[in-house]
Amino acid sequence: MGVVDALHSQFGLQAWASPHITIGVAAIFVFALVASAALLSLQKGKLDFNKGLLSYVKFAWSCFLKPHERDSDGESGQQHALESFYRAQASVYDATRKKLLCGREDMLGLLAAQLKHRESQHELSKPVWVDIGGGTGYNIEAMNRFLSVENFFSHVYLVDLSPSLLEVARKRFERLGWKNVTVVCQDARQFRLSDASGGADIVTMSYSLSMIPDYYSVVDSLTKFMKTNAILGVVDFYVQNIVDVSCRNYTGGVFNRHVNWLGRAFWRTWFDFDRVNLEAARRDYLEYKFGTIVSASERNYLLGGIPYYIFLGCQKDFTSGSTSIEKLNATFTESPYLSAANHRKAMDEAIETATPEIKSKAYESAVVNLSSNLPLPSAFYQNHHYRIYYNDQLAKHTQFNGEYIYAFNWEDPRVDHRLLNINTEDVILTITSAGDNILDYLQNSPKRIHAVDMNPNQNHLLELKVAAFSALGYKDVWRIFGEGKHSEFRQLLITKLSPHLSSQAFQFWLEHAQVFTSKSSKGLYETGGSRVAIKLVRYLFTLFGLRSSNTKLCEAQTLNEQREMWPTIRRVLLSRVLNWAIVKTEWFAWKAAGVPPPQRNMIIDDFLKRKGLSGGIKKNQDVSGQAIWEYVVDTFDPVAKDTLISNDNYFYYLCLQGKFSRSCHPAYLTPKAHDKLSSPGAFDGLRIHTDGLNEVIARMTPRTLTIAVVMDSMDWFNPDEDAAAKQAQALNRAMKMGGRILLRSASIEPWYIKDFEANGFSPRRVGARFPGSCIDRVNMYASAWIITKTAEIDPSPRPKANRANSVDVEALSI
Predict the structure, then answer these.
(1) Which InterPro entries match (predicted)?
(2) Measuring CA to CA, which residue among 129, 123, 141, 117 is closest to residue 232?
């Protein structure tokens, strides 16, 4: 039993969550430290309080016991208060703040990554840096880990109001020999740069905003010496209730932002003793005054879970690059779109030229924000425009509880290429899933790909893959997505990947960095909702002593070798006991295999038709269990018989081994694909929508799509409702004449095919899986269909899809 559990049982604290206990333990520790300081202060012997543990005693005395001195003249109240607090501890400030002031290096790393990206785009040269409240100069020296302070910056200004801390800073820079750093003892509200400097390129505030009484005027004053395209970096303590930000669309995400009521009360009271103010209004005002580039909320768990945040922002009237409304026009929805640049001037013109039905949600949110003098949503301030704004607090997005379902795709892109023959004129709409097939499609350089997923976490995964190709070499990309693990992932996330991620995606992966770094896990491919099935297989192999057999199966170099090994594995994976206990249950179908109840019913219906049984016995558990078991058998047996797992069928190799191999992996993980996807502009045509498929289709300019890949999503519809018919109608409106839909189904004859026929489409089954045969390397679906638009249901002028390079395929085969 752990300490927390013991406390719960001993003292009846069942209603108290473990963070509350952690805070209590931290308080007891600090109290003991204070008591030690009091006792040692009574000792008359000479002790060096600037070294070792005694430095913490000095810190405790200054922070918790030493009374604040009164201000005698009233002219320099804030400076006097700072000196009263810092004078006695200036010499030990850096030594005692390393564990307390978390996130400083992360903030600097994020800033350095942004600066390097701008330099690579020729948007920055010899920047000027102003560090407000920089104290001892620790931040400036720490930045040297990421950028050469002496060579990268033309000049650095450290501005603070405490002479004692600034004296430490002067000695620091004398020791380092840096001539381009100037230490300024001045009120931040009065600090200005000379006209010759042109203004600051970056401004930082590290745990200083919470100590400034008149913070509004200080934040306002920053814009007076910042360049138009300058970046502001802040790290500080905070407490906040999620209710405060529930109606804001410009915060860059609220992941982990909420602090519970006890934490808010305790930390605010605790820091008040030292005149450190944690009220939420300080962070709120930053986000109101500046556009959010990156925002993250973290906890210092070493000292009881102290909440702190990291904020990177820019002037809210500035957006990355000089992209005009004409350049971004039509890229989100193939329709007029509000650019993030010159938005006020272009607003009226954009509204006049855009028809209501083709305005994007991002456009609408921008109109609302600008009319209220608010910053634009964070998506507008990113270096890339492929992730489109969405409201991450809507129930349809939060229902996924911060988890993606699929860590890898379950659709065979080799077949997709054969059926679709994607070319440079294609505009594709596809479900994101894990994003693997989208990276595969991009090898053919289509004009546009609209990736759509209701689950924001699936899109975070796609964003991570896009960022990796944009910023990392092949070796690192392989370790992250080939092996699923990378011990330095967190460092790469901050220093290289962050400029290529949206704020929400960065928050997600900062919180889930252990997916790649944990020594106790198998890595990326044992995460997500589908991990249950993969872990179950691994557990069964261990339980029945089949690990060596599994290895031999995955190393077999011929189909004959593989077929000889398969019966040993099959006796466990396809045993009727396992089917009876787990596989046939609705819980396993949905939670582990991602099969919703409507799709499960389609499998059972097909089984009943094959057996000549009536539909009335569908609900019989024995019958439904038998249907699921036969479906699983028809999936796995042909795969083992006809596809070579060791060097071709990477889907099952991954499930059995937990990672890809150098000889068996998706096409996007080849060196050739890396060369293609890491080239400039490789993702210019990608747009990532976090929304329902119908929502996105409805905002498309009519007759612009040439291909739609909807996977098995229509199997999820209820046959008793009209959702399938509505989607067919929406697709007819959005697609060009001759445009094609590729769908897969768990049924040989999906019930909704008739809805396509009734709405201007000509369906053709191009693949059918019958017992003993493979439809593709995955073999998870019973049929595949190409559905071609042949008629308009909403007649008006219509462009026609160019199918000069397309090939009609009569049937699928391995």
Answers:
(1) DUF3419, SAM-dependent_MTases_sf
(2) 129
761 within 8 A of 696, measured Cβ to Cβ: no
Q: Is residue 290 located within the same domain as residue 334? A: no
Query: Which tokens in the block code for residue 220?
Result: 């306002």
Query: In the sheet that 427-431 helps form, which strands lie side by side, from edge to edge?
Result: 686-689, 448-452, 427-431, 705-711, 735-745, 783-789, 761-768
Instruction: List residues bridging with 661 in a β-sheet.
Output: 664
pLDDT tens for 65-109 read 455 566 555 445 666 566 655 555 555 556 667 788 899 999 999
Q: What is the pLDDT of residues 479-491, one digit of tens each?
A: 999 999 999 999 9
Strands 290-300 and 226-237: unpaired
Give the span between the Cα atoms of 530 and 651, in whole angstroms.
13
Ranges of beta strands (E only) in 175-263 are 181-185, 200-206, 226-237
Q: Is residue 252 part of a domain?
A: yes
Q: Show the domain range for 357.
A: 322-380
Domain boundary among 262, 289, 315: 315
Strands 735-745 and 761-768: unpaired
Q: Are residues 310 and 162 in the same domain?
A: yes
Q: Report d(CA 553, CA 641) in Å as an integer.
A: 12
Whole-model pTM: value is 0.85
| 235 part of a folded domain | yes
Whether the CB-CB separation of 415 and 812 falls below 8 Å is answered with yes
In this structure, are 203 and 309 located in the same domain?
Answer: yes
Dihedral sign (CA 52, 54, 56, 58) = negative
Residue 232 sits in a domain whose CATH number is 3.40.50.150
Domains identified in the chain, total number:
3
The CA distance from 201 to 229, in Å, is 7
Query: What single-letter amino acid sits at 292?
Result: T
The sheet carrying 306-315 orders its strands as: 181-185, 155-160, 128-132, 200-206, 226-237, 306-315, 290-300
Cα 39 to Cα 9: distance, rounded to the nearest angstrom: 35
306 and 351 within one domain: no
**CA 372/CA 370 separation, integer angstroms:** 5
DSSP assignment of 520-541, as one string? Answer: SS--GGG-STTHHHHHHHHHHH
Alpha-carbon distance 18 to 7, whole Å?
10
Instruction: Read off the pLDDT of residues 707-734 as tens digits, 9 standing for 90 and up.
Output: 999 999 999 999 999 999 999 999 999 9
Q: Could you tell me if residue 612 is inside a domain? A: yes
Q: Are residues 227 and 158 in the same domain?
A: yes
Beta bridge partners of 711: 743
How far apart CA 427 and CA 706 sit, in angstroms, is 5
Q: What tokens were used for 160?
A: 């603070």
DSSP 161-179: S-HHHHHHHHHHHHHHT-S
Q: Please say which residue of 265, 294, 315 terminates a domain.
A: 315
